[in-house]
């Protein structure tokens, strides 16, 4: 038995998760590797060759690293859990006129819970992943997600949904390193090919990055059901026909296939009337938004309004704002108007580098 304890490490076969496992192994943890199969690429119908974390080569790479360093490795099939929750939610959100963030749901509701369940079965005290973020215990006793030191790779945004019982046993060893250091570690561990391995930023079940095609394949007759809707302006004037409201997102400018003689942006979507509102770029700027399905991390709840940096998308630099909580909803008042607030996306609140909490954007106001 290791004096540091036993840890179940999620291994995708890529550089980050492999270095995570080998680093913890070197530090004296008793490591167990696990690779989760979430999706069959053939089920997407996109016709693109398997890439990323759910293909046989990645499974073999993860297993080989485990074998060579003398720790066990398992493959876990969670396709049913993943499909019934993440994929169905993805489809339902677009049909509701919202823009979902499936990677957040996958991390917080599927992968971490699946890891914790299997960690219990394997008597592992800890679970670990290769995310660029860190977890520490605050003086108030709560476990807090904080940004990774490499701002270009920081993944704290996608971890806002993790609850305290999961954070209390989570190890994120890459949070204190830059990507260049991790590449060097891969070389030092004897895996120079990992440093050259391409990284996928696509949604795993939409390998061709064409979510519209995916929706058409998943929902029989969708094109016919939503065809014939109208583009309208803020006053309700008809500007032209569109291809169906689920195929557009807030802030979209390209691919509208409508000529107005000026740039036009999707500013709102109404699924009930199958209308898509087009406007100017400034129409995307809003002063407030409401965020629901909130999970608080650093504090149990906000008893009083506070200042925070609010991010409304993964690559957003964040905007200073005042936030206040009522029940399971947070109202955000931006100090300067924020552009492109999309219902269905995640909003994450930061105090310095710490994640205060996050939730799902319900609607923009004003």
Q: What helical percentage do the residues reach?
A: 25-40%
Identify the strand order in the major beta sheet: 12-15-14-13-16-17
| Helix-strand pattern | EHEHHEHHEEEHEHHHHEEEEEEEEEE
Shape: globular
The CA-CA distance between the termini, in Å, is: 59 Å
Low-confidence stretches: 47-52
How many β-strand runs?
Answer: 17
CATH topology of the largest domain, by name, is Rossmann fold
| Mean pLDDT figure | 91
CATH homology superfamily name of the largest domain: HUPs
* Tally of contiguous helical segments: 10
Largest sheet: 6 strands, antiparallel, barrel
Number of domains: 3
Q: Helix/strand/pairing class, anyone?
A: alpha/beta
What is the CATH level 1 assignment of the largest domain?
Alpha Beta
Measured by DSSP, the beta-strand proportion falls in 25-35%
The CATH architecture classification of the largest domain is 3-Layer(aba) Sandwich
Radius of gyration, Cα only, in angstroms?
A: 22 Å
Can you offer a commentary on this structure?
The chain is 27% helix and 29% strand. The protein is of the alpha/beta class and 366 residues long. The protein folds into 3 domains: 6-130 and 172-196, HUPs (Rossmann fold, 3-Layer(aba) Sandwich); 226-279, Roll (SH3 type barrels), CATH 2.30.30; 286-365, Translation factors (Elongation Factor Tu (Ef-tu), domain 3). Strands 12-15-14-13-16-17 form a 6-stranded antiparallel barrel. Strands 3-2-1-4-7 form a 5-stranded parallel β-sheet, sandwiched between helices. A 4-stranded mixed β-sheet has the order 9-8-11-10, with no helix packed on it. The longest helix is centred in the N-terminal third of the chain and has 20 residues, at 102-121. The radius of gyration is 22 Å and the shape is globular.
């Amino acid at each position: 038995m290791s004096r540091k304890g036993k840890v179940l490490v999620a291994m995708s076969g890529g550089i980050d998760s492999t270095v995570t496992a080998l680093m913890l192994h070197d530090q004296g943890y008793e490591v167990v590797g696990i690779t989760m199969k979430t999706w069959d690429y053939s089920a997407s119908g996109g016709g693109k060759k398997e890439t990323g974390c759910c293909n046989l080569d990645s499974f073999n790479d993860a297993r080989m690293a485990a074998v060579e360093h003398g720790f066990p490795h398992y493959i876990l099939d969670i396709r049913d859990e993943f499909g019934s929750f993440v994929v169905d939610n993805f489809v339902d959100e677009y049909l509701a006129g919202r823009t979902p963030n499936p990677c957040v749901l996958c991390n917080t509701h599927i992968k971490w819970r699946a890891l914790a369940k299997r960690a219990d079965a394997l008597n592992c005290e800890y679970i670990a992943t290769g995310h660029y973020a860190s977890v520490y215990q605050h003086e108030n006793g709560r476990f807090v997600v904080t940004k990774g030191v490499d701002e270009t790779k920081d993944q704290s945004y996608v971890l806002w949904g993790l609850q305290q019982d999961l954070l209390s046993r989570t190890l994120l060893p890459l949070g204190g390193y830059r990507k260049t250091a991790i590449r060097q570690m891969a070389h030092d561990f004897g895996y120079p090919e990992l440093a050259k391995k391409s990284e996928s930023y696509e949604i795993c079940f939409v390998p061709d990055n064409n979510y519209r095609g995916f929706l058409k394949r998943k929902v029989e007759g969708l094109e016919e059901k939503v065809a014939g809707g109208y583009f309208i302006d803020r006053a309700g004037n008809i500007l032209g026909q569109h291809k169906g409201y689920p195929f557009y997102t807030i802030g979209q400018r390209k691919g509208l296939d409508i000529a107005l003689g000026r740039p036009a942006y999707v500013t709102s979507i109404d699924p009930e009337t199958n209308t898509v509102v087009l406007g100017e770029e400034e129409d995307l700027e809003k002063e407030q938004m409401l965020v629901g399905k909130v999970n608080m991390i650093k504090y149990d709840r906000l008893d009083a309004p506070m200042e925070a940096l609010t991010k409304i998308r993964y690559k957003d630099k964040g905007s200073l704002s005042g936030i206040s909580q009522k029940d399971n909803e947070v109202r955000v008042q931006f100090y300067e108007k924020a552009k492109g607030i999309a219902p269905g996306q995640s909003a994450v609140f930061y105090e310095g580098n710490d994640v205060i909490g996050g939730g799902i954007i319900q609607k923009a106001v004003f």
